[in-house]
Amino acid sequence: MPWVDCHIQVCHPRAPWDAETPSHVLVHRTLSYINGTDPSLGSRQQGRKNLYDAAKNRLDFDAASEIVCNCVRDPVYGAMVQSVLSTRPIDLRVIMPHPAFEERGHPVLGPTNALPFVFAEFIAEKLGCEADYQIEQIARVGRTNLNRFERFLWQPSFRGDVVRGCRYIVVDDVVSVGATFAALRGYIVRNGGTVCAVTALGHKHGTDQKFPISPATIKGIEALYGACVYRYWKEAVGHDVEALTEPEGLFLQEWGHEREREGVERGPPLLHRLRTRLDQAASNSSE
To answer: Is 168 left (phi over 0), alpha (psi -120 to 50) or beta?
Structure first.
């Protein structure tokens, strides 16, 4: 990981948000409902846990199919269809972030999670379009155990052919702050495609999540860290503050307010504390 003058600097380009960007990640269920930890499942809890483990960790497509069929909610699917129809796509494809199956003819640690594949095929079949596996995730596939600051520094990157002019529906099994969706959308947009809908089977709270950062959140970040935060974030992380997702932006606001309550002044002192925290995250993860 590159350091410049004792400070971390990585490059994670993202495409700017535009009028075609979906306003929300559409979410079907709580994560606890999907993975079998929701008490409301009653006697079905253990069975769901077993299915989830097989689908998530052992590439069991039958288990994944049962979960997807039980978890997709019609109102969420309907909202996704409306989002797609509003763009009037000529070429429509469903895509999901997934690791490569092989590298230069040699086996690698390929996918273990069947849920994104089954979810993509489910949506594609209902819409009468194609599930596209051409774009592969090539960096830091496993982000579950990273904290928020480490996730800023280790973001996924992608390779593969994007069909120019095509409109993509991006799906995944779980969304947290939307960083993987934002990175994949950026790759698609930079290579001539468009993302017209984004959806996940599950989220911690089971509610739709705002996707692009709002003007109010951008102003809140500037108010806390000062105008220099824009240049610093671009240098340190590799994309603009304006390219954050709304949950990412709200996290930076919340963290800044916590430091402020501890006595750190707004502006340069708080920005210095942010820089120190990101450098610390890079050092800890590297170790």
So the answer is: beta
Q: Which two tokens stand for residue 286?
A: 């590297």
Which domain covers residue 133, as residue numbers? Answer: 24-29+73-210
Give the model confidence (pLDDT) of 180-239 as tens digits: 999 999 999 999 999 999 999 999 999 999 999 999 999 999 999 999 999 999 999 999
CA distances to 32, 47, 69, 90, 171 from 52, rounded to whole Å, are 11, 9, 13, 35, 18
Helix (H) or strand (E) holding 170: strand 167-174
Q: Does the structure show a pLDDT above 60 at 143?
A: no
**Percent of the chain at pLDDT above 70?**
92
What does R_g of the chain's alpha carbons equal in angstroms? Answer: 20
**Shared-domain flag, residues 153 and 197:** yes
- Tokens coding 14: 């993202």
Q: Are residues 193 and 262 in the same domain?
A: no
Question: Does 287 have pLDDT greater than 50?
Answer: no
In DSSP notation, 198-256 reads EEEEEESS-S-EE-BPPHHHHHHHHHHH-TTHHHHHHHHHSS-GGGSBHHHHHHHHHHH
Q: How far is CA 284 from CA 1, 191, 221, 277, in A?
A: 12, 34, 25, 10
Helix (H, G, I), strand (E, B) or coil at 113: coil
Q: Which of 179, 210, 241 is the last residue of a domain?
A: 210
Q: How far is 244 from 232, CA to CA, in rounded Å? A: 14
